[in-house]
Amino acid sequence: MAVTLRYPFVEIEAPPEYRGIPKIDPAFCIGCGACVNACPADALLRIDNYEEGFREIVLDVGRCIRCARCEEVCPNGAIKLTRIFEAATLDRRDQVEVVRLKLVKCKKCGKFADYTERQVLKALQIVPKQVIEEDALNEKVWICRDCRRKETIDSTIRASKEKEVVG
């Protein structure tokens, strides 16, 4: 009769400098995709759903090479490497972590923009108040790039016409 012993036989403690499985803290993730761009193993994906208005940051631990690039580039400290090294599972879906964030809905055209509400809130926190009036900034950040571009072109045309009339 064969007996299978439970693996591991003893609890293994990883050394302090060990790069383990990354974890995303959904409370801190703004959905910027910096981690996705930095990941050489394509363990992170950014999926935008413009019909329903959300972005998903998907982490597949099974593809991760523990290089820590995601942790290094995250502007909010939302992704951290743990000291956990056991990634074995019976169901591969257990190795996938998904963070879902709302995309900005344009106040002008109603379409969803290609950035999240949390990205806008982060930008509002870091832009110096002396650079642009707060009301003007608030008005611009909640519209999509296309509407912002049209607005900029229209204001440039108006300004050039006013200059012609005055000049």
TrEMBL record:
SUPFAM superfamilies: 4Fe-4S ferredoxins. The keyword Ribosomal protein does not apply. Keywords: 4Fe-4S, Iron, Iron-sulfur, Metal-binding, Oxidoreductase, Repeat. Its EC number is 1.6.5.11. Residues 20-50, 55-84 form the 4Fe-4S ferredoxin-type domain. One of its GO terms (cellular component) is membrane. One of its GO terms (molecular function) is metal ion binding. GO terms for biological process: aerobic respiration. The keyword Phosphoprotein does not apply. This is Membrane bound subgroup 4b [NiFe]-hydrogenase MBH(B)3, subunit Mbh(B)3N.
